[in-house]
């Protein structure tokens, strides 16, 4: 089980509700690709420029006394690893990441977590015991 701060969930739910209202209000010009954090005034629906997000994230990390080495892309890697750990099918992970080539997902994003390695060892040990 993944332990997520309920406050973070509440903030994301609030953001999703806000985005839904914006989509409805700007439906004719809104670029809807299910981004969570998007421009509203300029190019509605398109994601923010990555540098703007990185700058804000760095500022928030400093305020929270967290490692400033974290980036939006590192969150993408973590998200993918957690999906893999949860047993989500590779095709679904690829779709979520927007990948068409399985090798890209496997090679770059699908980090094997410690828990997955431990689970594989336990399964192998059980298999050997059952022989």
A few lines on this structure:
The chain is mainly α and 131 residues long. Helix content is 62%, strand content 0%.
How would you describe the overall organization of this protein?
It contains 6 helices and no strands. The protein is an all-alpha fold. The longest helix has 20 residues, at 6-25. The radius of gyration is 19 Å and the shape is elongated. It starts with 5 loop residues before the first helix and ends with a helix. The mean pLDDT is 84.
Fold topology:
Elements: H1 6-25, H2 50-63, H3 72-85, H4 90-97, H5 102-109, H6 114-130
Biggest β-sheet description: none
**Low-confidence stretches at least 5 residues in length (pLDDT < 50)?**
none
* Average pLDDT rating: 84
- The SSE string, one letter per element, is HHHHHH
Radius of gyration, taken over Cα atoms and rounded to an integer in Å: 19 Å
Q: Shape, please?
A: elongated
Note the beta-strand portion.
under 5%
What is the end-to-end distance? 31 Å
Oligomer class: single chain
């Amino acid at each position: 089980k993944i332990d997520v701060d309920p406050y973070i969930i509440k903030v994301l739910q609030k953001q999703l509700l806000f985005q839904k209202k914006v989509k409805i209000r700007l439906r004719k010009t809104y670029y809807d690709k299910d981004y969570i954090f998007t421009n509203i005034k300029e190019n509605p629906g398109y994601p923010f420029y990555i540098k703007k997000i990185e700058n804000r994230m760095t500022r928030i990390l400093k305020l929270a006394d967290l490692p400033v080495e974290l980036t939006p892309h590192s969150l993408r890697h973590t998200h993918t690893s957690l999906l893999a750990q949860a047993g989500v099918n590779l095709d679904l992970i690829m779709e979520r990441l927007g990948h068409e080539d399985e090798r890209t997902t496997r090679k770059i994003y699908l980090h094997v977590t410690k828990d997955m390695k431990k689970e594989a060892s336990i399964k192998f040990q059980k298999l050997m015991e059952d022989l």
